[in-house]
Amino acid sequence: MQISIGSFSDKGRKSANQDSQGVRLGEGSLLQTKGIAAAIADGVSSSEHGAEASSACVLGFLTDYFSTPETWSVKKSVEQVCTALNGWLYRQGDSITAAHRGRVTTLSAVVFKSTTAHIFHIGDSRIYRIRHGDLEQLTVDHRTWVSAEKSYLSRAMGVDTHLQIDYSRVTLETGDIYLLSTDGVHDYLTDKEVISIILSSQKDLAKAAELLARKAMSHDSPDNVSCQILRIDELPARDADEVFSQLTELPFPPDLNEGLILDGYKIVRELHTSSRSQLYLVIDSDTGLQLALKTPSVNYEDDPAYIERFTMEEWVGRRINNPHVLKVYEPTRRRRFLYHIAEYLQGPTLRQWMIDNPSPDIEAVRAIIEQVANGLQAFHRLEMLHQDIKPENIIVGNRGALKIVDFGSVKVAGIAEIDSPVYRSNLLGTKNYSSPENLAEKVGSNASDIYSLGVITYEMLSGGHLPYGEIPSTKSRIDFKKLSYIPCADFNENIPSWLDGMLKKSVSPDPSDRYYELSEFLYDLRNPNKSLIFKDQRPLIERRPVQFWQGVSGLLAITLAASLIFLLS
């Protein structure tokens, strides 16, 4: 992305300038993952320290936004930063010493990322867009008018502990011009004047910004005058050939046999192979440590979507540090081929553990699920969805410690915002464990991963059964509304009704009826929730078929005996 920038700020007819503004471009890889951010703030003149408030807001926003995780979406990053800034301003203004009261300001910001502009706004500063010669206001003033002459800000930074900030997103086009201004400018200019000045001074946007401010002052603006102009000169659009060329910079490794040394890693033996990848036990020649080396399958050497996902596995793994998630390492030597280096895990998969322990007690299941949930929380905190939680992707290590592996289906909110010519399918995961929305290729959420975890919990407690039985092939559209939850107590009489209700909630076909936070899921896994007590509404023949037919047989026997007695008498 390439942009042109021009800005101007002056105290105008005021004794001091309480406006602040700034622009920052992401450095290195952050230009792609975080983009370009611009902000403008107008310190409220009635507050004692409006200038400090506006300066702190703009500086804090432009600094802290680029410090948030690359995995976070723009919306989450900005909301977290603004909430922290608002809390700081409020606490400063609410101190005991009266001299420190009144740090209140407006804040309007835009983040350009990939081909999207993300708009954030609170107060009466404004953000405009000029496209094809038309001026459009993209923000709504948070101002309440008491009379024709008197008004007050209905929302601002630093006023309250609760922050409500407007958010919207619009698609970028090359040539778009964005104007951020304070009320000392836009309240004293007509749309025609704004368009004329900017379009006639495009070669010098700094001059255009100054002309806008000077024009507002000539119209008797009594306030500080500040504005900044940003023009989109080039968008980060890449063609498929360019992307494929970048993805294939590192070739696939050759066949790896025992004893071979690849970039300083000595192959000990093959640990696992599938149609999509191979996993080897290796020894690092520098440290002597045993590690796992994962290579891509040559079956996908010409598949850009596969290669992108394979490289993303490493990107994801290196950003998670949790005792219940496989640790992925950054190679210390130059790589000549495409592969990952991760910790070597010894132990069976959870699937094998379930085969070896077909009837675990409830407490043993809780101990396992709590570890998996702890690892899954590490993904969710970074705004990632694993999307393929299943027993085969969980390793039971030494002393019962569990680790989540395989990040090939992980969805990263921050990366999903970046346009790519590579087709990214949402149909990921494994049918019996994937949520209904994932199987329908719809947008997932934390609740989608919790569905998968709920299925595993149910399967362990029921002795290998599934809450809806075997799910049909993912090639057909599955109507989950027609599927009926099978009570876990049908297979395990030790399951209390409240736990059955908790499991039913976890695997509800409707994500809005499920748990959204893993903390809630874990709490109800141990603590009876009376509102979730499962009431089996099925007919007796479905709930207790053996007892039903025993009852019917007994009734027939009694009827037959009574008939014989009657006939004999």
UniProtKB/TrEMBL annotation:
Boundaries of every Protein kinase domain copy: 265-526
Native source organism of the sequence: SAR86 cluster bacterium
SUPFAM superfamilies found in the cross-reference section: PP2C-like, Protein kinase-like (PK-like)
Pfam families: Pkinase, PP2C_2
UniProt GO molecular function: ATP binding; protein serine/threonine kinase activity
Region (Disordered): 1-22
Transmembrane segments: 548-568
InterPro entries: Kinase-like_dom_sf (IPR011009), PPM-type-like_dom_sf (IPR036457), PPM-type_phosphatase-like_dom (IPR001932), Prot_kinase_dom (IPR000719), Ser/Thr_kinase_AS (IPR008271)
Protein name: Protein kinase
Domain PPM-type phosphatase as annotated: residue spans: 4-232
Gene3D superfamilies the UniProt entry points to: Phosphorylase Kinase, domain 1 (3.30.200.20), PPM-type phosphatase domain (3.60.40.10), Transferase(Phosphotransferase) domain 1 (1.10.510.10)
Domain of life assignment: Bacteria
Key words, A-Z: Kinase, Membrane, Transferase, Transmembrane, Transmembrane helix
